[in-house]
Protein backbone atom coordinates (compact mmCIF):
# COMPACT_ATOMS: atom_id res chain seq x y z
CA UNK A 1 0.00 0.00 0.00
CA UNK A 2 1.41 3.45 -0.91
CA UNK A 3 1.79 6.19 1.69
CA UNK A 4 -1.02 8.16 0.04
CA UNK A 5 -3.38 5.18 0.21
CA UNK A 6 -2.45 4.47 3.79
CA UNK A 7 -3.03 8.13 4.73
CA UNK A 8 -6.37 8.04 2.95
CA UNK A 9 -7.55 4.99 4.87
CA UNK A 10 -6.22 6.35 8.16
CA UNK A 11 -8.24 9.56 7.64
CA UNK A 12 -11.34 7.62 6.61
CA UNK A 13 -11.13 5.30 9.60
CA UNK A 14 -10.51 8.11 12.07
CA UNK A 15 -13.50 9.96 10.63
CA UNK A 16 -15.66 6.87 11.20
CA UNK A 17 -14.20 6.47 14.70
CA UNK A 18 -15.11 10.03 15.70
CA UNK A 19 -18.63 9.65 14.29
CA UNK A 20 -19.12 6.42 16.19
CA UNK A 21 -17.95 7.97 19.46
CA UNK A 22 -20.45 10.83 18.97
CA UNK A 23 -23.22 8.39 18.09
CA UNK A 24 -22.43 6.23 21.13
CA UNK A 25 -22.70 9.29 23.35
CA UNK A 26 -26.12 10.10 21.88
CA UNK A 27 -27.40 6.49 21.87
CA UNK A 28 -25.79 4.65 24.79
CA UNK A 29 -28.38 1.84 24.56
CA UNK A 30 -27.43 0.87 20.97
CA UNK A 31 -25.07 -2.09 21.43
CA UNK A 32 -24.27 -2.28 17.70
CA UNK A 33 -22.20 0.93 17.99
CA UNK A 34 -19.50 -0.39 20.36
CA UNK A 35 -19.10 -3.43 18.08
CA UNK A 36 -18.57 -1.17 15.07
CA UNK A 37 -16.13 0.94 17.05
CA UNK A 38 -14.15 -2.20 17.90
CA UNK A 39 -14.06 -3.11 14.17
CA UNK A 40 -12.78 0.37 13.29
CA UNK A 41 -10.11 0.14 16.00
CA UNK A 42 -9.09 -3.30 14.71
CA UNK A 43 -8.79 -1.88 11.17
CA UNK A 44 -6.62 0.98 12.48
CA UNK A 45 -4.40 -1.57 14.24
CA UNK A 46 -4.09 -3.56 10.99
CA UNK A 47 -3.13 -0.34 9.21
CA UNK A 48 -0.34 0.32 11.73
CA UNK A 49 0.78 -3.32 11.64
CA UNK A 50 0.94 -3.33 7.83
CA UNK A 51 -1.71 -6.08 7.43
CA UNK A 52 -4.54 -3.78 6.37
CA UNK A 53 -6.10 -4.77 3.04
CA UNK A 54 -4.77 -8.35 3.27
CA UNK A 55 -7.27 -11.24 3.19
CA UNK A 56 -7.12 -13.18 6.46
CA UNK A 57 -7.73 -16.48 4.67
CA UNK A 58 -5.43 -16.42 1.63
CA UNK A 59 -3.16 -13.47 2.60
CA UNK A 60 -3.70 -12.01 -0.87
CA UNK A 61 -4.67 -8.34 -1.26
CA UNK A 62 -8.36 -7.44 -0.91
CA UNK A 63 -9.84 -5.85 -4.05
CA UNK A 64 -9.02 -2.10 -3.92
CA UNK A 65 -12.44 -0.94 -5.06
CA UNK A 66 -14.17 -2.91 -2.31
CA UNK A 67 -11.77 -1.60 0.30
CA UNK A 68 -12.47 2.00 -0.72
CA UNK A 69 -16.20 1.36 -0.22
CA UNK A 70 -15.70 -0.45 3.07
CA UNK A 71 -12.32 -0.10 4.86
CA UNK A 72 -13.43 -2.63 7.50
CA UNK A 73 -13.18 -5.57 5.07
CA UNK A 74 -11.02 -8.51 6.16
CA UNK A 75 -11.56 -11.01 3.34
CA UNK A 76 -11.15 -11.00 -0.44
CA UNK A 77 -14.11 -11.81 -2.72
CA UNK A 78 -13.08 -15.46 -2.99
CA UNK A 79 -13.18 -15.92 0.77
CA UNK A 80 -16.49 -14.41 1.76
CA UNK A 81 -19.02 -16.59 3.58
CA UNK A 82 -22.02 -17.71 1.49
CA UNK A 83 -24.23 -15.21 3.34
CA UNK A 84 -21.76 -12.41 2.65
CA UNK A 85 -21.62 -13.38 -1.03
CA UNK A 86 -25.40 -13.34 -1.29
CA UNK A 87 -25.59 -9.95 0.45
CA UNK A 88 -22.93 -8.60 -1.91
CA UNK A 89 -24.83 -9.81 -4.98
CA UNK A 90 -27.99 -8.13 -3.69
CA UNK A 91 -26.08 -4.87 -3.08
CA UNK A 92 -24.66 -4.93 -6.60
CA UNK A 93 -28.07 -5.50 -8.18
CA UNK A 94 -29.44 -2.60 -6.15
CA UNK A 95 -26.46 -0.39 -7.10
CA UNK A 96 -27.02 -1.23 -10.77
CA UNK A 97 -30.68 -0.27 -10.62
CA UNK A 98 -29.82 3.02 -8.88
CA UNK A 99 -27.21 3.69 -11.55
CA UNK A 100 -29.70 3.01 -14.33
CA UNK A 101 -32.01 5.62 -12.87
CA UNK A 102 -29.21 8.21 -13.13
CA UNK A 103 -29.20 7.88 -16.93
CA UNK A 104 -31.10 10.30 -19.17
CA UNK A 105 -34.27 9.00 -20.80
CA UNK A 106 -33.83 7.13 -24.06
CA UNK A 107 -36.11 9.25 -26.30
CA UNK A 108 -34.39 12.49 -25.35
CA UNK A 109 -35.03 15.59 -27.50
CA UNK A 110 -35.10 19.36 -27.08
CA UNK A 111 -35.51 22.32 -29.48
CA UNK A 112 -34.39 20.62 -32.67
CA UNK A 113 -31.84 18.36 -31.00
CA UNK A 114 -32.10 14.64 -30.41
CA UNK A 115 -29.81 12.36 -28.44
CA UNK A 116 -29.32 8.61 -28.55
CA UNK A 117 -27.04 6.64 -26.32
CA UNK A 118 -25.95 3.12 -25.43
CA UNK A 119 -24.72 2.42 -21.92
CA UNK A 120 -23.27 -1.00 -21.19
CA UNK A 121 -21.35 -1.84 -18.00
CA UNK A 122 -18.61 -4.49 -18.31
CA UNK A 123 -19.92 -6.05 -15.10
CA UNK A 124 -22.90 -5.14 -12.95
CA UNK A 125 -22.13 -1.45 -12.45
CA UNK A 126 -20.25 1.00 -14.68
CA UNK A 127 -17.64 3.71 -14.22
CA UNK A 128 -18.86 5.51 -17.35
CA UNK A 129 -20.83 8.71 -16.99
CA UNK A 130 -23.49 9.80 -19.46
CA UNK A 131 -25.93 12.65 -18.94
CA UNK A 132 -28.04 15.28 -20.67
CA UNK A 133 -29.17 18.30 -18.67
CA UNK A 134 -31.55 20.97 -19.96
CA UNK A 135 -30.51 24.49 -18.98
CA UNK A 136 -31.22 28.05 -19.92
CA UNK A 137 -32.71 27.44 -23.38
CA UNK A 138 -30.15 24.82 -24.34
CA UNK A 139 -28.65 21.76 -22.78
CA UNK A 140 -25.46 20.24 -21.44
CA UNK A 141 -24.20 16.92 -22.76
CA UNK A 142 -21.76 14.95 -20.66
CA UNK A 143 -19.87 11.77 -21.34
CA UNK A 144 -17.03 10.51 -19.21
CA UNK A 145 -15.00 7.59 -18.04
CA UNK A 146 -13.77 7.25 -14.46
CA UNK A 147 -10.41 5.47 -14.09
CA UNK A 148 -10.82 1.85 -13.04
CA UNK A 149 -14.06 -0.05 -13.10
CA UNK A 150 -16.44 -1.82 -10.80
CA UNK A 151 -17.94 -0.50 -7.59
CA UNK A 152 -15.42 2.24 -6.75
CA UNK A 153 -15.60 3.66 -10.31
CA UNK A 154 -19.41 3.54 -10.21
CA UNK A 155 -19.41 5.49 -6.95
CA UNK A 156 -17.23 8.18 -8.52
CA UNK A 157 -19.54 8.14 -11.51
CA UNK A 158 -22.56 8.91 -9.31
CA UNK A 159 -20.50 11.57 -7.56
CA UNK A 160 -19.84 13.20 -10.96
CA UNK A 161 -23.54 12.95 -11.77
CA UNK A 162 -24.53 14.80 -8.56
CA UNK A 163 -21.77 17.40 -9.01
CA UNK A 164 -22.66 18.33 -12.58
CA UNK A 165 -26.41 18.23 -11.87
CA UNK A 166 -26.00 20.79 -9.09
CA UNK A 167 -23.51 22.96 -11.01
CA UNK A 168 -25.74 22.98 -14.10
CA UNK A 169 -28.50 24.70 -12.15
CA UNK A 170 -26.31 27.68 -11.32
CA UNK A 171 -26.04 29.35 -14.70
CA UNK A 172 -22.26 29.25 -14.76
CA UNK A 173 -20.12 29.44 -17.90
CA UNK A 174 -18.71 26.09 -19.03
CA UNK A 175 -15.18 26.93 -17.91
CA UNK A 176 -16.40 27.67 -14.36
CA UNK A 177 -18.49 24.48 -14.27
CA UNK A 178 -15.37 22.50 -15.13
CA UNK A 179 -13.18 24.31 -12.59
CA UNK A 180 -15.67 23.68 -9.76
CA UNK A 181 -16.29 20.06 -10.81
CA UNK A 182 -12.53 19.44 -10.99
CA UNK A 183 -11.90 20.80 -7.52
CA UNK A 184 -14.79 18.82 -6.03
CA UNK A 185 -13.64 15.67 -7.82
CA UNK A 186 -10.03 16.14 -6.64
CA UNK A 187 -11.21 16.49 -3.04
CA UNK A 188 -13.31 13.35 -3.22
CA UNK A 189 -10.83 10.94 -4.80
CA UNK A 190 -7.67 9.25 -3.68
CA UNK A 191 -4.41 9.53 -5.58
CA UNK A 192 -4.48 8.05 -9.06
CA UNK A 193 -8.21 8.34 -9.66
CA UNK A 194 -9.43 10.69 -12.34
CA UNK A 195 -12.00 10.94 -15.09
CA UNK A 196 -11.69 11.76 -18.76
CA UNK A 197 -14.74 13.70 -19.92
CA UNK A 198 -16.41 15.69 -22.64
CA UNK A 199 -18.75 18.34 -21.32
CA UNK A 200 -20.56 20.47 -23.88
CA UNK A 201 -23.21 23.12 -23.96
CA UNK A 202 -25.49 23.17 -27.03
CA UNK A 203 -28.01 25.79 -28.12
CA UNK A 204 -31.08 25.63 -30.35
CA UNK A 205 -29.16 27.56 -33.09
CA UNK A 206 -26.63 24.71 -33.38
CA UNK A 207 -23.79 26.48 -31.57
CA UNK A 208 -21.83 24.16 -29.31
CA UNK A 209 -19.14 24.97 -26.74
CA UNK A 210 -17.29 22.05 -25.29
CA UNK A 211 -14.40 20.98 -23.10
CA UNK A 212 -12.64 17.68 -23.55
CA UNK A 213 -10.78 16.81 -20.37
CA UNK A 214 -8.33 14.24 -21.70
CA UNK A 215 -11.08 12.32 -23.47
CA UNK A 216 -10.99 10.47 -26.79
CA UNK A 217 -11.69 12.54 -29.93
CA UNK A 218 -15.23 13.69 -30.50
CA UNK A 219 -16.41 13.30 -34.11
CA UNK A 220 -18.38 16.06 -35.79
CA UNK A 221 -20.21 14.45 -38.70
CA UNK A 222 -21.53 16.79 -41.39
CA UNK A 223 -22.19 16.86 -45.13
CA UNK A 224 -18.59 18.11 -45.52
CA UNK A 225 -17.15 15.00 -43.84
CA UNK A 226 -16.04 13.81 -40.45
CA UNK A 227 -13.94 16.06 -38.27
CA UNK A 228 -12.11 14.74 -35.21
CA UNK A 229 -11.93 17.10 -32.24
CA UNK A 230 -9.10 16.15 -29.91
CA UNK A 231 -8.90 16.65 -26.14
CA UNK A 232 -8.43 20.24 -24.98
CA UNK A 233 -7.10 19.61 -21.49
CA UNK A 234 -6.06 17.09 -18.84
CA UNK A 235 -8.50 14.68 -17.16
CA UNK A 236 -10.71 15.81 -14.32
CA UNK A 237 -9.24 15.16 -10.87
CA UNK A 238 -5.61 15.03 -12.02
CA UNK A 239 -4.62 18.50 -10.82
CA UNK A 240 -6.46 20.65 -8.27
CA UNK A 241 -6.06 23.82 -10.28
CA UNK A 242 -6.03 23.57 -14.03
CA UNK A 243 -7.58 25.35 -16.97
CA UNK A 244 -10.10 23.70 -19.23
CA UNK A 245 -9.97 25.53 -22.57
CA UNK A 246 -13.41 25.81 -24.18
CA UNK A 247 -13.74 25.06 -27.90
CA UNK A 248 -16.53 26.00 -30.25
CA UNK A 249 -18.21 24.29 -33.14
CA UNK A 250 -21.45 24.75 -35.01
CA UNK A 251 -23.77 21.97 -36.06
CA UNK A 252 -25.82 22.74 -39.15
CA UNK A 253 -29.22 21.08 -39.48
CA UNK A 254 -28.61 17.38 -40.15
CA UNK A 255 -25.16 17.32 -38.48
CA UNK A 256 -24.26 14.84 -35.76
CA UNK A 257 -21.69 14.40 -33.02
CA UNK A 258 -20.39 11.02 -31.93
CA UNK A 259 -18.96 10.58 -28.42
CA UNK A 260 -17.76 7.31 -26.89
CA UNK A 261 -15.66 5.82 -24.13
CA UNK A 262 -12.59 3.58 -24.39
CA UNK A 263 -14.78 0.51 -23.97
CA UNK A 264 -15.19 0.96 -27.74
CA UNK A 265 -11.66 1.85 -28.85
CA UNK A 266 -9.83 -0.52 -26.50
CA UNK A 267 -11.76 -3.61 -27.54
CA UNK A 268 -9.63 -6.46 -28.89
CA UNK A 269 -10.51 -9.19 -31.38
CA UNK A 270 -9.31 -12.80 -31.38
CA UNK A 271 -6.27 -11.84 -33.50
CA UNK A 272 -5.22 -9.34 -30.81
CA UNK A 273 -6.05 -6.24 -32.90
CA UNK A 274 -7.42 -3.22 -31.08
CA UNK A 275 -10.60 -1.56 -32.38
CA UNK A 276 -8.94 1.87 -32.13
CA UNK A 277 -10.01 5.42 -32.87
CA UNK A 278 -9.35 4.92 -36.60
CA UNK A 279 -12.14 2.36 -36.87
CA UNK A 280 -14.53 4.70 -35.04
CA UNK A 281 -13.69 7.45 -37.52
CA UNK A 282 -14.24 5.09 -40.49
CA UNK A 283 -17.57 4.08 -39.01
CA UNK A 284 -18.59 7.70 -38.65
CA UNK A 285 -17.61 8.32 -42.31
CA UNK A 286 -19.42 5.23 -43.56
CA UNK A 287 -22.63 6.17 -41.77
CA UNK A 288 -22.33 9.95 -42.14
CA UNK A 289 -25.74 10.30 -43.75
CA UNK A 290 -27.62 7.70 -41.70
CA UNK A 291 -30.12 8.63 -39.03
CA UNK A 292 -28.56 9.07 -35.55
CA UNK A 293 -30.22 6.00 -34.04
CA UNK A 294 -29.11 3.93 -37.06
CA UNK A 295 -25.54 5.23 -36.59
CA UNK A 296 -25.63 4.02 -33.00
CA UNK A 297 -26.92 0.60 -34.06
CA UNK A 298 -24.30 0.39 -36.82
CA UNK A 299 -21.56 1.05 -34.24
CA UNK A 300 -22.88 -1.74 -32.03
CA UNK A 301 -23.12 -4.13 -35.01
CA UNK A 302 -19.55 -3.26 -35.99
CA UNK A 303 -18.31 -4.06 -32.48
CA UNK A 304 -20.10 -7.41 -32.52
CA UNK A 305 -18.64 -8.24 -35.95
CA UNK A 306 -15.17 -7.13 -34.91
CA UNK A 307 -15.09 -9.33 -31.86
CA UNK A 308 -18.02 -11.78 -31.80
CA UNK A 309 -16.73 -14.01 -29.02
CA UNK A 310 -14.73 -11.64 -26.83
CA UNK A 311 -15.98 -10.96 -23.33
CA UNK A 312 -16.56 -7.26 -22.72
CA UNK A 313 -13.74 -6.14 -20.44
CA UNK A 314 -14.42 -2.42 -20.13
CA UNK A 315 -17.50 -0.26 -19.62
CA UNK A 316 -18.88 0.94 -22.94
CA UNK A 317 -20.84 4.09 -23.67
CA UNK A 318 -21.76 5.70 -26.99
CA UNK A 319 -23.69 8.90 -27.54
CA UNK A 320 -24.95 10.43 -30.77
CA UNK A 321 -26.27 13.99 -30.76
CA UNK A 322 -28.19 15.14 -33.79
CA UNK A 323 -29.40 18.54 -34.92
CA UNK A 324 -32.62 17.88 -36.81
CA UNK A 325 -32.65 18.79 -40.51
ZN1 LIG B 1 -8.76 -14.47 0.21
Sum this structure up briefly.
This protein is an alpha+beta fold and 325 residues long. It has helices spanning 3-26, 32-49, 64-69, 82-101, 150-168, 174-188, 262-265, 276-286, 292-306, and strands spanning 109-110, 113-120, 128-135, 138-146, 195-202, 207-213, 218-222, 225-229, 247-250, 256-260, 316-323.
Descriptive report:
With 325 residues, the chain is α+β, with helices and mostly antiparallel strands. The protein has helices spanning 3-26, 32-49, 64-69, 82-101, 150-168, 174-188, 262-265, 276-286, 292-306; strands at residues 109-110, 113-120, 128-135, 138-146, 195-202, 207-213, 218-222, 225-229, 247-250, 256-260, 316-323. The strands form two sheets. It has a six-stranded antiparallel sheet with strand order 1-2-11-10-7-8. Strands 3-4-5-6-9 form a five-stranded antiparallel sheet, covered by helices on one side. Strand 3 and strand 4 (138-146) form a beta hairpin. Helix 1 packs antiparallel against helix 2 (32-49). The structure holds zinc ion (ZN). Zinc ion binds at residues 55, 57-58, 60, 75-76, 78-79.
Amino acid sequence: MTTAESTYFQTELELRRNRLIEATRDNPADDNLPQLLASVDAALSRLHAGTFGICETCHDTIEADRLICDPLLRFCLDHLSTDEQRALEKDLVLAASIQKRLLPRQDWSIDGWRAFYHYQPANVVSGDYCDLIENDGGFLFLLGDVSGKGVAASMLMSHLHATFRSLAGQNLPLQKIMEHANRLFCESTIAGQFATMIVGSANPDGKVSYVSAGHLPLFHISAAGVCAREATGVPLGMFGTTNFPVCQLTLRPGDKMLLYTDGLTEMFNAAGDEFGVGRVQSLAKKHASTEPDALLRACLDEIRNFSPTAKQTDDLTLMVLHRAA
